[in-house]
């Protein structure tokens, strides 16, 4: 019979090995190297989503040139040691709120350039101190994008490549977002004005409908009253009926 201490030691070794395997497991579609932390190379692997089985000790994650369309808030939840994240040259359309929250403290570089992003949730980059590359995306310049840009550090090398593909004001299409904002334009004010105009138009339409209904109601009742009067006029008069009655009485 083996001493209990030997069994505990054996269990401890198995647990340690399982922990190491889990921490350093590499996605089958990627290539991993260990250099003061795991570097995961997943570039040009035809990925349609971010691999869920990434090593927890990943410090560099390269996911560029794939077909990724969405970044979920769970994608990097366990990668607390991540320092560099490259998501460039994908087809990313949406980034969920809080997607980078778990890695915000340690991240040193984030590349989202050359994707299909038109907007971002306001707190997408909450507490993120890393410079972010957002160039060559079809941005829609409006209030929410302006608020997002206030919360992050744009990469200085690509800041002039973040342009308005579309805009709430057509005159800014094709212009650099930062230059537009630096000129004093406030998309949020324009948004409020647009909302006020829309509300005014809606109220005007409502008032017009009510007015039209009242006019129709009055005219309809006038027509009813006119037909009623014509009907009353078409009836034999009381005096005429009385005269006929007297004539008949005298004959008898």
From TrEMBL:
<keyword id="KW-0677">Repeat</keyword>
<keyword id="KW-1133">Transmembrane helix</keyword>
<keyword id="KW-0472">Membrane</keyword>
<feature type="transmembrane region" description="Helical">
    <location>
        <begin position="197"/>
        <end position="218"/>
    </location>
</feature>
<dbReference type="GO" id="GO:0005886">
    <property type="term" value="C:plasma membrane"/>
</dbReference>
<feature type="domain" description="LRRNT">
    <location>
        <begin position="25"/>
        <end position="60"/>
    </location>
</feature>
<dbReference type="Pfam" id="PF13855">
    <property type="entry name" value="LRR_8"/>
</dbReference>
<protein>
    <recommendedName>
        <fullName>Leucine-rich repeat-containing protein 3</fullName>
    </recommendedName>
</protein>
<keyword id="KW-0732">Signal</keyword>
<keyword id="KW-0812">Transmembrane</keyword>
<dbReference type="Pfam" id="PF00560">
    <property type="entry name" value="LRR_1"/>
</dbReference>
<feature type="signal peptide">
    <location>
        <begin position="1"/>
        <end position="23"/>
    </location>
</feature>
<dbReference type="Pfam" id="PF01462">
    <property type="entry name" value="LRRNT"/>
</dbReference>
<dbReference type="InterPro" id="IPR000372">
    <property type="entry name" value="LRRNT"/>
</dbReference>
<dbReference type="InterPro" id="IPR003591">
    <property type="entry name" value="Leu-rich_rpt_typical-subtyp"/>
</dbReference>
<keyword id="KW-0433">Leucine-rich repeat</keyword>
<dbReference type="InterPro" id="IPR001611">
    <property type="entry name" value="Leu-rich_rpt"/>
</dbReference>
<dbReference type="InterPro" id="IPR050541">
    <property type="entry name" value="LRR_TM_domain-containing"/>
</dbReference>
<comment type="similarity">
    <text>Belongs to the LRRC3 family.</text>
</comment>
């Amino acid at each position: 019979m083996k001493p209990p201490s030997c069994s505990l030691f054996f269990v401890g070794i198995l647990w340690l090995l399982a922990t190491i395997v889990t921490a350093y497991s590499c996605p089958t579609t990627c290539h991993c190297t260990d250099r003061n932390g795991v570097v995961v190379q997943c570039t040009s692997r035809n990925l349609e989503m971010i691999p869920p089985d990434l090593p927890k000790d990943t410090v560099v994650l390269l996911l560029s040139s794939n077909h990724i369309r969405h970044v979920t808030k769970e994608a990097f939840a366990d990668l607390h040691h991540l320092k560099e994240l490259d998501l460039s040259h994908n087809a990313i359309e949406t980034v969920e709120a809080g997607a980078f929250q778990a890695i915000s403290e340690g991240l040193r570089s984030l590349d989202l350039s050359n994707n299909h992003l038109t907007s971002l949730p306001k707190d997408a980059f909450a507490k993120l101190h890393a410079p972010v590359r957002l160039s060559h995306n079809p941005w829609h310049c409006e209030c929410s994008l302006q608020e997002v840009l206030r919360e992050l550090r744009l990469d200085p090398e690509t800041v002039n490549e973040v342009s308005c593909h579309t805009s709430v004001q057509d005159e800014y299409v094709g212009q650099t977002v930062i230059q537009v904002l630096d000129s004093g334009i406030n998309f949020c004010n324009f948004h409020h004005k647009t909302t006020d105009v829309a509300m005014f138009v809606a109220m005007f339409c409502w008032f017009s409908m009510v007015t039209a209904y009242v006019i129709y109601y009055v005219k309809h009742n006038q027509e009813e009253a006119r037909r009623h009067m014509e009907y009353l006029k078409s009836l034999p008069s009381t005096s005429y009926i009385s005269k006929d009655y007297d004539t008949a009485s005298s004959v008898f």
